[in-house]
From TrEMBL:
It comes from the Bacteria. It comes from Pelistega suis. InterPro entries: CoA-transferase_III_domain, CoA-Trfase_fam_III, CoA-Trfase_III_dom3_sf, CoA-Trfase_III_dom_1_sf. SUPFAM superfamilies: CoA-transferase family III (CaiB/BaiF). Keywords: Transferase. Pfam families: CoA_transf_3 (PF02515). GO terms for molecular function: CoA-transferase activity. This is CoA transferase.
Length: 401
């Protein structure tokens, strides 16, 4: 039997975040074995509890108070209901912080100082504390006090300028991503930063302050598009479902649907031409190399579109897969979870739930050979663990004094 403990076993996290970026970070830490104490407002709790429908249904088929949005990012945590705006509530959080390793919050810049819950105040009582602030624009700069929202930052930060169909084509114009990618990426960067700070603390014995911003994270995630601009001075345009630097690398229509073709090099292009029964396209000087295909993008794409419309999606996918040409379908979410590969990876997990019987959750993509992710706790009910946590920290009489 494996006796190794989870990677973050014994690490205590005081979580004052809500909505998505912060909870995404703390769910990662929870999956790694950290004890996440989710501090929520009495009566209402995390905003996303009410972001439905859909809501989780109880065993009688009636809606619970937990929206699917909330369930997506709060497993493996414990919930304590505290009014931090009250003197006793803020004092209680300070007491909890004395015994915690990590404090994470996503209040506006300076918003916790009036409660004595800012970094300097907590550092004075726990020098080992790692304090992570997640805000829209960071702690410095002219926009530091502005609220940050994923959708707005997708536009402001450049993603929508490169997402969506070309302006000269039908349906052209900016488009946001289908999920809150800015929040999710910020949560991931916050996770990495916290793990780095924990590792450094093993050497120094001291905590530190982490300043994580949605806008910073969003600018960073533009990756190669940033460098396309930084090295050339040319502003990257929208290319819809095509690729700025590679051709053919886009969605094509078949006669019964759509497929993705992702030809990444010249050999794959030659194999692709063979697979679609048009080897002459691999010998045409206008299309032999990727730079030449880029120069004649519209011509080649038009030719390929006419060819691929002559057969079904699945027939093309079978031919391209046989030729080892990268390709794939465009699945809806049901089709994703019906995929044998997704099922083999056990991405659909189920947890016991006190009012619904069970609750579904999506498995973490982090896979460990000897300390696997454990799915132990359902996303908590509001304040479900208040008494348990107070007793554990010997604070059960705190609010009564």
């Amino acid at each position: 039997m494996n006796t190794r403990k989870p990677p973050l076993d014994g690490v205590k996290v005081l979580d004052l975040t809500r909505v998505l970026a912060g909870p995404w970070c703390t769910q990662n830490l929870a999956d790694l074995g950290a004890d996440i104490i989710k501090v929520e407002r009495p009566e209402t709790g995390d905003d996303t509890r009410a972001w439905g429908p859909p809501f989780l249904k109880d065993e009688q088929g009636k809606n619970t108070t937990e929206a699917a949005y909330y369930l997506s990012t709060n497993r493996n945590k414990r919930s304590i209901a505290i009014d931090i705006a009250s003197p006793k509530g803020s004092a209680l959080v300070r007491e909890l912080a004395k015994s915690c390793d990590i404090f994470i919050e996503n209040f506006k810049v300076g918003g916790l100082k009036k409660y004595g819950l800012d970094y300097e105040s907590l550092k004075a009582i726990n020098p080992k504390l790692i304090y992570c602030s997640i805000t829209g624009f960071g702690q410095t700069g002219s926009m530091a006090q502005d609220p940050g929202y994923d959708f707005i930052i997708q536009g402001m930060g450049g993603l929508m300028s490169i997402t969506g169909e070309r302006d000269d084509l039908p349906g052209g114009g900016p488009q946001k991503a289908g999920v809150a990618v800015t929040d999710l990426m910020t949560g991931m960067y916050a996770t990495v930063a916290i793990l780095g700070a924990l590792h450094e603390r093993h050497r120094s014995g001291l905590g530190q302050y982490l300043d994580i911003a949605l806008l910073d994270s969003h600018v960073a995630l533009l990756a190669n598009q940033n460098l396309n601009y930084m090295t050339s001075g040319n502003i990257p345009p929208r290319y819809g479902n095509a690729h700025l630097n590679i051709v053919p690398y886009q969605v094509f229509p078949a006669n019964d649907g759509h497929l993705i073709v992702a030809v990444g090099n010249d050999k794959q292009y030659r194999d692709f031409c063979q697979a679609i029964n048009h080897p002459e396209l691999a010998q045409d000087e206008r299309f032999i190399t990727n730079p030449s295909r880029l120069a004649h993008r519209d011509l080649l794409v038009g030719i390929l579109t006419d060819i691929l419309k002559t057969d079904t999606r699945d027939n093309w996918l079978n031919k391209l897969n046989a030729a080892k040409v990268p390709c794939g379908p465009i699945n809806n979410i049901k089709q994703v979870f019906d995929m044998p590969q997704v099922q083999a990876r056990e991405m659909w997990q189920t947890l016991p739930h006190p009012t619904a019987g069970t609750v579904p959750t999506v498995a973490s993509p982090m896979r460990f050979s000897d300390t696997p992710i454990q799915y132990k706790k359902h996303p908590p009910l509001l304040g479900e663990h208040t008494d348990e946590i107070l007793k554990e920290f010997n604070l059960q009489d705190f609010l009564n004094n």
